[in-house]
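Handover notes (outgoing to incoming on-call)

Open items:
1. O-antigen ligase-related domain-containing protein: sequence verified, structure written out, both below. Nothing else pending on this one.
2. Nothing else urgent.
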Amino acid sequence: MRLSDMSSLIFWALLAVVCLSPLPLASNRPLPWSALSLAVGLLLLLWGVSRLYEALLPGTAPAVADDSTRTPRGKRRPSHARLIDRHAALLATGFVILIAWYWVQSSPELGGAWAHVAWAQAAAALGEKLTGTISLDPAASRTMIMKIVAYGGVFLLALELGRDRRRAWLGFWAICLAGFAYAFYGLFIHFAGDRSILWFDKEAYPDSVTATFVNRNAYATYAGIAVLVGLVPLMTELQRFTRRRQTAQRFLLMLSEQASASLYIAIAAILTGLVAVTLTGSRAGVASLVLALAVFAVGLLVAREIRPRTFLIGALLAGAAVAGILMLSGDFLAKRLMTTDQGPEARAAVFSTAVAAVTAHPWVGQGLGSFGTAFNLANDGNAVFDNYVDLAHNTYVELAVEGGLPALALSLVLIGASVGLCLASMLFRARAAITSIVAVAIAAQVGAHSAVDFGIQMPAVAVTFMLLMGLAAAQALAVEVVEPQRFGKRRPARRGRDRPLSADEPVTPPHELEVPWPVRSTRPDLTAPARITGPTTLQSLSRMARGDVAATAPPVEEAGNAPTPADEYETAMARWRALRPSGHAGAPTPDAEASSTRPEPVPRVPGPAGGAVPQAGGEPSGAKIVKLPPRPSPP
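O-antigen ligase-related domain-containing protein structure tokens:
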């Protein structure tokens, strides 16, 4: 098997793993997340073996194809491939440092010197010696390390395998279709009145659409990502019809006649996802999606992917669509917005207690997966909760409690680096701008929602987010820099492609014609009266081969009226004299017009048999001949 086939196989397997991850309850159970981590680990192993095989065999072609010219055997990898490898190495180095610190937290041998004080208190209470660690729950920390390594592996594979434009496009399409399928399933179950998730009874949020998720806020995050991903094929299809300035009627006509099935599937996926997000009843999910759509709109204007007039029309249509969805499906969300429950007060109490836990151990943290234990230790009794609190409803604060402030900063730097690549591509790159814009919008949605909820902590949401960010970052690195005039004053665009700017501009004749292409004049015809009774018609070679020339060929002139070389020469000189006083730039000179190898014009008079014979006197009887200037003798 060739290396390119192996990389394609790994990429398709990666898409299958990510798209199927929401199916088993968002992979938020021990068996699903273990299977997910195992699958990603196997794919990483296969990819590493293929890269090692490529490095050991210098005569092997690159493992990943790209849009540029294929690299010959024995040559170096393409420049953009080396650039992606360098960025991947930098990100992988930071990620390894982060994972190493999390491992130190859970290891009694490495982190025993900074062991949590709770271990000494527990040993004194139990009367036995306990091996202390930084983490309050080492087993939970190792499980979280396994999941985080899987998330990073998905990003690395997407970054390395997604440099090909077609693969990136297929990756976005796969997530769009997967989100469409899950949203359709959730709406079908909801309107059918079946309160279940797969074959399990739906105990939490029975009135909300959650698809295969248990928590409605987590599904709102995933459905919002799917809606934003659907904008990539939608904008790709619409850009084919908005490259030229045209009326709305012409645009709708072209849309109805030339639109492909991809456009209608993308529209259906986006509308279905919007309805699903609305019916989840997640206030933060809807607000973060609206914020992401606003970021997407601003990104289109900044990257100049759309004209302002088209943007305004699209914004009005999108606003009308959202208003219609809210009118039809927003009753449940409106009730949620108007209710005065104790959710915000409870989350504020959780937040204040979590901040106290951060201040207790700000530098080393208290171990991944140990938020519940750390929260109860930090709670001084001022806040009373009915349930066991194991989530902070704020991913940033929870990560600061578990890993410490340095680990939180490093995590944000790693994610911010990929977002920064997409942002730079949106501002300074020519290709794949739409994927970068969507990636920045997805990062805005996930980042905003993570401040009030824990949707990104679901394995299905995390691997989907990492896949999309990896693909977008790869496309941002695998493009060429835009020329400076793109962001300066734009040159006027032509009304039509492959058409001359003026009637006197020469054009290239089509391949099927063997006669000169006619050029329409911008001035009145000053030539002598035409002796051809019918227009000259251009005939294609295919019609000539079929014998269809006689039907459209001009009528044949009589022999006595046929134009002679002298007549053609006189006509050309008469036109030159008529154009010369007006200063026409394209008027030829007499020397250029009269070739030295051309024979002298000989006047001719009609003969007795209808023919033409030369006249010895020099001028034909009954004809007015224009006297020509003396011609220079040939050198």
